[in-house]
Amino acid sequence: MTIRWEEITYDNLTNIEKVFEIYDEAFPIEVREPQDIFYQSLDYAKTRLPNGFRFLVGYEGEQLVSFATGHYFAEANIGFIVYIATNPLIRSKGLGTKTLVKIEELLNEDAISAGNVSLRATILETEKQEIVHNEAEKEDCIKRNRFFERNGYKKIDEIQYIQPPLNNGDSNVPLNLFINKNDVSKEEIIKYIQIIYKEKYCFVNRIDKQVLKSCLEMMGIENVHLPS
């Protein structure tokens, strides 16, 4: 399979609705952001340089086969992959890995543009089995976690990670946190979470600061990065 890669930007919103169809099917409701957040992320990329946001789409011919989104956070020189999914109608071994490798490459380009040799690490969240609603979601959850482990990510066990509620009225969500580096201390991981909460969940998602502070406290993490 030869994949053609494109990026969605405000100047190129081609097939964004098809991406949202795959997105809605691929993820449980608890970890699905409102679609407006994707547009807010594009805004963020313009106003928070050298931080960045990548919205990657893969095509085979004219058919959309995969997508991935991710942020680069310069303060810690890390990538944060938000979503990655493949078209369920496409059966191609290795498509997910190719998409992951490509989004990692783009985030590493952002790190280099910010004056670094390369990314320090890439982090991502995945669902735990206790939040799924049916056997199909459970199977997808297991596959997703195994996929990241096969591709060099390890689960962070030092902290019981919590994702803040993505939709008004929702509760916070316990998730697995994965990282693709082995030589990272707990102190560094705490810093990464603090920055993710500030840049992603405060500035992009615009979640109430008191909600974010409460989630950090539940993880035993001091709030030193959220704006007052």
TrEMBL record:
UniProt entry keywords in alphabetical sequence: Transferase
Protein name stated in the entry: GNAT family N-acetyltransferase
GO molecular function: acyltransferase activity, transferring groups other than amino-acyl groups
Keyword Nucleotide-binding found: no
Residues annotated as domain N-acetyltransferase: 6-180
Source organism per UniProt: Niallia alba
CDD domains xrefs: NAT_SF
Origin: domain of life: Bacteria
